[in-house]
Amino acid sequence: MSETVEMKAIDWAEKYRPKTFKDLIGNKKPLHELRLWAEEWERGVPEKKAVIMYGPAGVGKTSAAFVLASETGWEHIELNAGDQRTADVIERIAGAASKTTTLFSHETDDTGKKNSGKRLIVLDEADNLHGTYDKGGSKAIADIIDKTTQPILLIANDIYGITQAIRSKSLELEFSGIQTRSLAPVILKICKNEGIEIDEAAAMKIAEGAGGDLRSAVNDLQAISVGKKTITGADIVISGRDVKETIFKALAKVFKGKDRKSALDAVQTLDETPEDLILWMDENLPVQFPDVDEKGKPVTGQINPDVAKGYLILSKSDIYLGRVRRRQTYRMWRYAGFMMTVGPMAARSKEYHGFIKYESPARWKRMGQSRSVRSMRDNIAAKIAARHNKSMRVSRNSLIAYYQKLMENEEYAVALASDSDFDMDELVYLLKVKSATKKVQTVYEKSRAIADSKRSPDAEFEKTPEPAEKRSSAATADKNQLTLEDIAKKSGEKKEAQKPEEKNKNQKSLLDF
């Protein structure tokens, strides 16, 4: 029976997948920009050769990709997380596809639509593409975007999970959750097509339970409709009793609602710890209680008393959370949750009308970015440590700074990049820039050329460090080869052995910065 239900759910999801842009609901702005990008490809090769569509699951990103291919008549090739996505596989499949047109270019299909010869390359779950697991997949994608003559579309939930080298070359389109009032008509339409009677109130309950996720709404409807020809509000209560509240619905009940018990119940069913919930409250409290007068006009020069009272209560709630962390008295979570939920409701002295979008905690975004930076730093440190036979600690705390200072000189940057095999993202970090600039690309291309010319079949097996004399002679013979002694000398690490009068007054060591 369960297998039958699962098969039914799969069939429905595919059966009602949008076929045209008119069938897609919500996200009008990113969809419009996506169509403009496709039109640029029809006229030639645009400046941004790739698009990143990102946002929560179930909001139509993958459907938009299929609709784009269908509406334009483009063929498409898809690589998802279930496929092997190493650099070799990506280059063999996506790389080859990005350089050639289709065999049926400029011919018409069964619907009379002309094939422009474009081939859309779709990479799903692009934020799960990491160098460690996919063995150079991110670097391969960045290189393919540079060389492609075909449109590339990447799909992700978290934009920060995609490397900066890819993001700097792509057009970023953010998709958001679909509003309840837009989901309900879809549910009514599906029921009509399936011969199921459902009232608008029941459809609205299903839409509210989906939390902006169209796929979840369709799945819930399918589960409820098994064995039924009529769906009422009572069916939704029974079938949806285990559906948890979304954080956005809970925030709405706290900041806009009047029923404190309903708000508490919503918070208690959340899959969020009190430590996470207080961050949501902290981020949204000042924008949900804006500084406006009775007529709704902004008031400057004063703090909204409701915001001040709300933060005072949140601070007391944070004290309870601190005691939980120090003493592991988790029963205090209950008191903290009560205060951070009922507190802002009690602090509200008037009704605040109008919808203001709820934002996720900015701290999470900063932490996500810092994790990415730390991971990049550790990858660089590992390469430097292996090259100079030093520990990760010395490499991370000292040598990276030496490299960054030396790489201000383009000649040294090329030499170091070729010797340590730094990729584009690592060069962005070492050159201390925000994106893959022309300087970064120049250094990368030159370093790759040098590395390719030096590479030999036995290079990977040379693990034993050479004697200092041999390294010194090699450095003399090849000015692009830098040793640890060179770095120490250039950075001023040995300056205590030099006489002050011998130092160039216009030259500063790394320790002088």
Order of helices and strands, N to C?
A: HHEHEHEHHEHEHEHHEHHHHHHHHHHHHH
Radius of gyration: 29 Å
Shape annotation: globular
The share of residues in helices is: 55-70%
Quaternary state of this entry equals: single chain
Report the major sheet: 5 strands, parallel
SS-based class:
mainly alpha
Low-confidence stretches: 1-9, 130-135, 238-244, 458-465, 467-481, 493-513
**First and last CA, distance:** 71 Å
Q: What is the arithmetic mean of pLDDT?
A: 75
Strand content: 5-15%
Strand ordering within the main sheet: 2-3-4-1-5
Strands, total number: 7
Q: What's the tally of helices?
A: 23
Summary, kept brief:
By secondary structure, this protein is mainly α.
Could you characterize what this model shows?
The chain has 513 residues and is mostly helical. It has helices at 2-15, 28-43, 61-72, 87-97, 131-134, 137-147, 164-167, 180-193, 200-210, 214-225, 233-239, 247-255, 260-268, 274-288, 305-327, 332-347, 362-388, 392-406, 410-420, 424-430, 438-454, 468-477, 484-491; strands at residues 50-54, 75-79, 119-123, 152-156, 170-174, 197-198, 230-231. Strand 2, helix 4 and strand 3 form a beta-alpha-beta unit. Helix 1 packs across helix 10, helix 12 (247-255) runs antiparallel to helix 13 (260-268) and helix 15 (305-327) runs antiparallel to helix 16 (332-347).
